[in-house]
């Protein structure tokens, strides 16, 4: 019978219409993302040993860091800069980090207004975050 | 009465067009509403992947492969890392092989769901689109909890997998597998069994067996033309020789069969995942590979069965940390060449149907 398939399809949509909602009300309700989600990067300055592994693992030369030697002749991180406009968010930098100083974080609301906001000073960002919390 | 010929109409479809899957432009030559010729224009998404590979180390290129066929990124990772492993002669742990199969087949299901959804959407079936995408979200959730990303997954590494799936992955996978018969029933009821969809797709865009073979078509498009060819069976890679599954073949050669064959493939993928989940051993997920990857001097070609066809990587190594040359054999780029040949003589709305059933992903076409 012609039209049987159409009615069957309508039956399915009707069944789903009275069923439970599966959509999320995003801006009102924040999603609870798994801890492995690579939405943003976070640095713990004290843990960093300035080994430069992250910069070498990066496919796009996003990371630039400088260090200086302290009195005990140990390397201490001085600046840590990320050019996130070039970042693929592949997470390779966090994966190679031997001390887990660099981590992927779940802050996904990264929209910005100005191109220069894509230059992240990771040390300042970490300090700012510490103040907010 | 003699029929006067009108001037040929040239219609420009794309690159931004609702029925263009990505940035694809075709210049359609029309006589009335009948297509006389199609000139595909590609390259809007060209990023120079092959050249980029020459300036990246072997490990650094893995995230780029995600961006080829972005609807099935684990498959691209898989093809690439297996090529490098073949060049280096690395044996990877059993558990990693099983995990690769599970994620590869999940990617196949997700990719086919997008194909079904977008074909429905191109046939103006809005609700059918949302059903397939709803279920694909569950696969994306599984990617997300394991690798940390939903689309560009970057889950495989040279020598194994990037991460062990978390505890909540296995129940999520099991419930997905349990729900698939109902999902497929719904897709059939809402789209494939619909008379309008059948009218738009059946006997439209005939790609005969001879044409398909002569044009080097691969993947579901080839199998819908009655050719039993699948790299997983023809040249088993990874551990596909251990699984019991069939290669679905249809003989309709039309747009309808090219779409519905993907439903059959989902059923087979479910079968493979069930066997993999049953047999998966414990153990490590990474082989012992050096931190700095330096394959020996030589060249290698390796191919896998991507959801869209045969995906191959050809690498020439000069013994340094970066490849001298990397060539990608994309499935849809080669499948796309059937479009001007098959679409000739059909009406303009049929061109949309033929292009949709090709399931072209422009990330892979333009590289």
TrEMBL record, chain A:
Entry GO MF terms: 4 iron, 4 sulfur cluster binding; iron ion binding; NADH dehydrogenase (quinone) (non-electrogenic) activity; quinone binding
Cofactor: [4Fe-4S] cluster
Assigned GO CC terms: plasma membrane
Signal sequence annotation: none
Protein's cellular compartments: Cell membrane
Residues where [4Fe-4S] cluster 1 binds: 48, 51, 54, 97
Entry EC no(s): 7.1.1.-
UniProt keyword annotations, A-Z: 4Fe-4S, Cell membrane, Iron, Iron-sulfur, Membrane, Metal-binding, NAD, Quinone, Translocase, Ubiquinone
Binding note for cofactor: Binds 2 [4Fe-4S] clusters per subunit.
Membrane topology of this protein: Peripheral membrane protein
Catalytic activity: a quinone + NADH + 5 H(+)(in) = a quinol + NAD(+) + 4 H(+)(out)
Domain 4Fe-4S ferredoxin-type intervals: 39-68, 78-107
Family: Belongs to the complex I 23 kDa subunit family.
NCBIfam families (UniProt xref): NuoI
Function summary: NDH-1 shuttles electrons from NADH, via FMN and iron-sulfur (Fe-S) centers, to quinones in the respiratory chain. The immediate electron acceptor for the enzyme in this species is believed to be ubiquinone. Couples the redox reaction to proton translocation (for every two electrons transferred, four hydrogen ions are translocated across the cytoplasmic membrane), and thus conserves the redox energy in a proton gradient.
Record text on subunit structure and interactions: NDH-1 is composed of 14 different subunits. Subunits NuoA, H, J, K, L, M, N constitute the membrane sector of the complex.
Protein name per its UniProtKB record: NADH-quinone oxidoreductase subunit I
UniProtKB/TrEMBL annotation, chain B:
PROSITE patterns given in the database record: COMPLEX1_49K
GO molecular function: NADH dehydrogenase (quinone) (non-electrogenic) activity
Enzyme Commission code(s) on record: 7.1.1.-
Gene3D superfamilies for the chain: Cytochrome-c3 Hydrogenase, chain B
Residues in coiled coil: none
Subcellular location(s) of the protein: Cell membrane
Similarity comment text for this entry: Belongs to the complex I 49 kDa subunit family.
Job of this protein: NDH-1 shuttles electrons from NADH, via FMN and iron-sulfur (Fe-S) centers, to quinones in the respiratory chain. The immediate electron acceptor for the enzyme in this species is believed to be a menaquinone. Couples the redox reaction to proton translocation (for every two electrons transferred, four hydrogen ions are translocated across the cytoplasmic membrane), and thus conserves the redox energy in a proton gradient.
Subunit structure: NDH-1 is composed of 14 different subunits. Subunits NuoB, C, D, E, F, and G constitute the peripheral sector of the complex.
Protein name, entry field: NADH-quinone oxidoreductase subunit D
Organism name: Desulfosporosinus nitroreducens
Lineage, opening ranks: Bacteria, Bacillati, Bacillota, Clostridia, Eubacteriales
């Amino acid at each position: 019978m012609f039209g049987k398939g159409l009615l069957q399809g309508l039956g399915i949509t009707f069944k789903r219409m009275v069923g439970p909602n599966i959509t999320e009300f995003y801006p009102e309700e924040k999603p609870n993302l798994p801890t492995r989600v690579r939405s943003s990067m976070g640095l713990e300055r004290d843990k960093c040993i300035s080994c430069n592994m992250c910069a070498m693992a990066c496919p796009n030369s996003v990371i630039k860091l400088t260090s200086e030697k302290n009195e005990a002749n140990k390397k201490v991180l001085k600046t840590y800069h990320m050019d996130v406009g070039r970042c693929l968010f592949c997470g390779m930098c966090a994966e190679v980090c031997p001390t887990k100083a660099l981590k992927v974080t779940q802050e996904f609301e990264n929209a910005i207004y100005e191109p220069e906001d894509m230059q992240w000073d990771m040390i300042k960002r970490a300090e700012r975050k510490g103040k907010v919390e | 009465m003699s029929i006067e010929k009108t001037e040929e109409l040239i219609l420009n479809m794309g690159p931004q067009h609702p029925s263009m899957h990505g940035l694809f432009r075709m210049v359609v030559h029309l006589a009335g509403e009948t297509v006389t010729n199609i000139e595909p224009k590609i390259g809007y998404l060209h990023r120079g992947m092959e050249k980029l590979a020459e300036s990246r180390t072997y490990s650094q290129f893995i995230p780029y492969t995600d961006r080829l066929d972005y609807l099935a990124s684990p498959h691209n990772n898989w093809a690439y890392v297996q090529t490098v492993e073949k060049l280096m002669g690395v044996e990877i742990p059993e558990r990693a092989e099983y995990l690769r199969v599970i994620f590869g087949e999940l990617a196949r299901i997700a990719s086919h769901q997008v194909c079904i959804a977008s074909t429905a959407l191109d046939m103006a079936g809005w609700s059918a689109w949302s059903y397939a995408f709803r279920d694909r979200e569950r696969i994306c959730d599984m990617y997300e909890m394991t690798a940390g990303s939903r689309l560009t997954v970057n889950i495989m590494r040279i020598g194994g997998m990037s991460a062990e799936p978390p505890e909540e992955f296995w129940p999520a996978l099991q419930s997905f597998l349990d729900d698939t018969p109902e999902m497929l029933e719904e897709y059939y009821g809402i789209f494939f069994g619909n008379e309008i969809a059948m009218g738009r797709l059946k006997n439209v865009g005939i790609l005969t067996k001879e044409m398909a073979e002569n044009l080097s078509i691969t993947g579901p498009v080839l199998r819908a033309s009655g050719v039993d060819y699948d790299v997983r069976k023809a040249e088993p890679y990874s551990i596909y020789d251990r699984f019991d599954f069939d290669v679905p073949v249809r003989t309709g050669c039309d747009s309808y069969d090219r779409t519905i064959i993907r439903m059959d493939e989902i059923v087979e993928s479910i079968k493979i995942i069930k066997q993999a989940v049953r047999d998966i051993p414990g153990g490590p997920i990474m082989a012992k590979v050096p931190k700095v990857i330096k394959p020996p001097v030589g060249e290698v070609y390796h191919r896998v069965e991507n959801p869209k066809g045969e995906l191959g990587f050809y690498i020439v190594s000069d013994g340094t940390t970066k490849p001298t040359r990397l060539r990608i054999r994309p499935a849809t780029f080669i499948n796309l060449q059937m479009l001007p040949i098959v679409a000739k003589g059909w009406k303009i709305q049929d061109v949309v149907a033929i292009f949709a059933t090709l399931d072209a992903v422009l990330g892979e076409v333009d590289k």
